[in-house]
Amino acid sequence: MTGHDASDTITALATPSGRGGIGIIRLSGPASPKIAAALLGTCPPPREAVLRSFRSADGEPLDFGLALYFPGPASFTGEDVLELHGHGGPVVLDRLLARTLELGTRLARPGEFSERAFLNGKLDLAQAEAIADLIASGSEAAARSALRSLQGAFSVRIDALIEQLTTLRTYVEAAIDFPDEEIDFLSDGHVALGLAELAGELDAVNNAAARGRLLHDGLTVVIAGPPNAGKSSLLNRFAGQESAIVTDVPGTTRDLLREYVQLDGLPLHLVDTAGLRDSDDAVEREGIRRAREALEHADHALLVLDDTDRDPLAEQTLLKALPDGLPVTVIRNKIDLSGRVAGPDKGPDGAEIALSLKTGDGFETLRDHLKEVSGYSGSEAGDFMARRRHLDALERAGEAIGQARVALDEQAAGELVAEELRLAQQALGEITGAVTSDDLLGRIFAEFCIGK
Ligand SMILES: Nc1nc2c(ncn2[C@@H]2O[C@H](COP(=O)(O)OP(=O)(O)OP(=O)(O)O)[C@@H](O)[C@H]2O)c(=O)[nH]1
Ligand SMILES: [Mg+2]
Question: Which of 228, 234, 336 to mutate to test ligand 1, by most ligand atoms within 8 A of the CB atom?
Fold first, then answer.
């Protein structure tokens, strides 16, 4: 629950706990200036760093350091904010935190500073999420995109779409108000053109958001194939270490093995699986069941085949047994033995890559291929961070615009068009937080750490 109560003054450690040169405690709320005065003697002048002792109730110094006071609304949260930069030791900071509590603050909930910034209109929801994403980013590309989102790159696109939607909706609603002219109004091409433009722009935003989502969640790639084809060797090559046991005994791998790697900033969740075959061994059968389950949750499958042991019929069976709609790349491994030339190929059923996991020949092609098929290549400039939630909202908006186009073409029904436009607007509003519920806010900010 978010249950915003702005009369509370909240406090939290803003830097990671542990030892460091500096540790910062941040307060936000109406009691900040009064607490500053009690703690520091007087409240510091606005936005000026002052060196002060931080004192206990009896006037004993707990620590000394810089104090900064930001009166609202020109502060991060929009409220009166006080920052105390003390020495970064756990005991020192605990004592200082306890002192701020004693002076009438309460401990902030996770994400509560960002939540207050959102509720006070300092940030929209996508920007608040970008703070968490920036802090959590595990690659340069992710950090860059999160920063762009935080600076509003995503929100600007969404706001522009909402603006376009509003204009079009007003036009359609005007048509409804003049029933005699409604048909003419709707068939003059203006609405059709507006809807087509909206659909196009939504598509572009959606593509950029899908790439952003990839930076946030990464790509789950399941390595599957018959026993002994080189699946575990593939995992090891990506990981750059011997994570999985590799032997010439078919059926070596039984459990799922997971490795997290980065492909030039693209987060890859790799899953090595048991070789797919009919088996009487109960353990192996369970491994195969798990392999199939992993495939159900994959974004992409790598079907590893032994190129010295080609069996087109068996290949077809394996391909058909993969989940419908799952993108697959066939890996023809062991070309050091079969003599095939390394590199990509367009096989009858999609992409194929010939390589040798023993020599590494062709592996680079596979890396490039994964970046390419995921849409990651060349996505750097201009993109922003996005989450599953944003993609869901974009999808709903797209569906509503699709429905509006149908209503216009087939029925010239102004009211239906207006209603679909309203739904699209609402879906987009959820991204920036123009439309929200306590429940949604609660879920988003609960994922933050305390102090953010
Ligand atoms: N010559 C050659 N041998 C390879 C290559 N890749 C893997 N092997 C060998 O093939 C055998 C099987 O490799 P693994 O990586 O264990 O194969 P797997 O698909 O994980 O096998 P299971 O776990 O039993 O299903 C091992 O002896 C590897 O050394 C390759 O490119 N060339
Ligand atoms: Mg294996």
Answer: 228
